[in-house]
Design brief:
five-stranded parallel sheet; 10 helices; three-stranded antiparallel sheet; 322 residues
């Protein structure tokens, strides 16, 4: 006699942390007429002939009605939320009605977008000047932290000639003006949905996948890799993972991983990471270590590496662009 049983995979722990509430864009002025604009230079304009765009952009901003342009130059590489908040306060203290931030092109991009978010939160409209690969990174960070943020893209590399920079500065200036003066849609800010296909409850993800197995003479033939494939496909569909094979992070596997650390699972290693802004805790690190195939006895090494990266002397935000 042959019977059939239905197999259901166990829930797995969510590898991500909770993300901050997105910032709503500040109200936009109808025009630049009579406004004070801050042109914020994060020092990336020092490369190549990039600085050639500044006088041209400034000329167009004045032509669009800006009464005063204040130049601020500050280093943002590796800056955390405390420094970013203080920098935003400095920009506001300069009398800024709006601000232009330049240049988001590499590792300084996350910090530049976070500065934009802080300014928008305080009511200052912002346009961010970007160049690849920073443009793509800025879009992802902005999607989580300040949806709809005007990102003004310009093609720049260190080999771009001075003449090319000047030519590209003109359309960039028009884009900046539009970014500052175009009203927001009015829709509430929404970060990208982290899970679109998996039921979420209590920090676990449940897979609706069912597999059947025929039982004959008390034995059932089960594909040993079947559930791993299901989990891999489902997590990829939900945009979780890096494309490499995944070990399902069940509660028991994560418990074994945490058994090799004497730190609490909710202990924060890095308080704010991009692009989502979620904190890296010991527990979240253990979940991700399981997914990556790390053996529990190796977890102390992984934990030590992340604790080293949490040192303020390590430019963690900058390395995210690598």
């Amino acid at each position: 006699m042959t019977d059939e049983i239905i197999l259901r995979p166990q829930p797995v722990l969510d590898p991500r942390g909770p993300t901050p509430q997105p910032v709503e864009l500040a109200p936009r002025p109808a025009s630049l007429e009579g406004l004070t604009l801050v042109f914020f230079d994060n020092t990336k304009l020092d490369f190549g002939h990039y600085r050639e765009l500044v006088p041209i952009v400034e000329e167009h901003l004045r032509a669009a009605g800006a009464a005063t342009i204040v130049h601020l130059r500050r280093q943002l590489r590796g800056c955390g939320s405390t420094v970013i908040a203080a920098t935003a306060q400095e920009v506001r203290a300069s009398g800024a009605d709006a601000a232009v931030l330049a240049l988001a092109d590499m590792g300084v991009t996350p910090a530049t977008v976070l500065l934009a978010a802080e300014l928008e939160r305080g009511g200052t409209p912002v346009a961010v000047v970007c160049a690849e690969p920073g443009t793509t990174l800025a879009k992802v960070v902005a999607a989580y932290r300040v949806p709809g943020l005007p990102l003004c893209d310009i093609e720049l590399t260190t080999s771009t000639t001075a003449e090319q920079v000047r030519e590209r500065a003109v359309p960039l200036a028009h884009e900046i003006v539009a970014g500052i003066t175009t009203p927001a849609t009015g829709a509430p800010p929404v970060a990208p949905a982290p899970v679109e296909t998996l039921p979420y409850a209590g920090g676990t993800l449940t897979f609706p996948v069912r597999r059947s197995a025929a039982v004959e003479n008390g034995e059932a033939a089960v594909d040993p890799a079947g559930f791993a494939e299901d989990v891999y496909d489902a997590l990829c569909d939900a945009r979780i993972g890096d494309g490499l094979p995944i070990i399902p992070p069940t509660a028991e596997r994560v418990r074994r991983m945490l058994g090799y650390s004497d730190r609490p699972a909710d202990a924060v290693i890095l308080a704010e990471t991009q692009p989502s802004g979620a904190a890296i805790t010991v527990g979240r690190l253990a979940v991700n270590a399981v997914m990556a195939g790390c053996r529990p006895e190796y977890f102390p090494i992984v934990l030590a590496a992340f604790e080293a990266m949490a040192d303020p002397r390590f430019p963690f935000l900058q390395q995210l662009a690598r």
